[in-house]
């Protein structure tokens, strides 16, 4: 599979990931908000119970305690739901990471295989022959054939001389400049 295909395949597989993550995080925020609302209600019920415990009948006390207990139970459910959602989100991201690792390993194996095939081809086709010129040599040859004369293509000693001449200030100098 070509490099572009690996990337395209992976991008297709994670296309909806940001939306799924946003959805899960929004659900977690909603669960947090519901829990906070219930905690406020529990505080209100507890304050009411404490302030009027002496004046309430035992049935009213039990009813109030039952409301508090139910609210705590609901908070626990919301917390459990949030933990499940967080685990689900983690597993979803982990699955994509594992898939990326697998695709990356396949891609690297393909590259190595192509490199081995390429080097086998080079060694079998160049038996008894000289290797071709390097890219640098080819550029230099092209530049010479076109008649270009830039600093990059000039020999290093000529470049140094050229830099020395350019580095010496021309005005206000006592010594003559040779170049």
From TrEMBL:
Region (Disordered): 116-162
InterPro entries: ING_fam (IPR028651), ING_N_histone-binding (IPR024610)
Residues of the Inhibitor of growth protein N-terminal histone-binding domain: 6-107
GO BP: chromatin organization; positive regulation of apoptotic process; regulation of DNA-templated transcription
GO annotations of cellular component type: nucleus
Name of this chain's protein: Inhibitor of growth family member 4
UniProt source species: Pan paniscus (Pygmy chimpanzee)
């Amino acid at each position: 599979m070509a490099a572009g295909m690996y990337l395209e395949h992976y991008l297709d597989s994670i296309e909806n990931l940001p939306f799924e993550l946003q959805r899960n995080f929004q659900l977690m925020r909603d669960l947090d908000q519901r829990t906070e609302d219930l905690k406020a209600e529990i505080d209100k019920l507890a304050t009411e119970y404490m302030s009027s415990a002496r004046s309430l009948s035992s049935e009213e006390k039990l009813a109030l305690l039952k409301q508090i207990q139910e609210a705590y139970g609901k908070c626990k459910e919301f917390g459990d739901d949030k933990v499940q959602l967080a685990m689900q989100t983690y597993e979803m991201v982990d699955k994509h990471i594992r898939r990326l690792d697998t695709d990356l390993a396949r891609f690297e194996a393909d590259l190595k295989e192509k490199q081995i095939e390429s080097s086998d081809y080079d060694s079998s086709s160049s038996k008894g022959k000289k290797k071709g010129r390097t890219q640098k040599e080819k550029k230099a040859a092209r530049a010479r054939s076109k008649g270009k004369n830039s600093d990059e293509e000039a020999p290093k000693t000529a470049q140094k001389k050229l830099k020395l001449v350019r580095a010496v200030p021309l005005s206000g100098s006592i010594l003559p400049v040779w170049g």
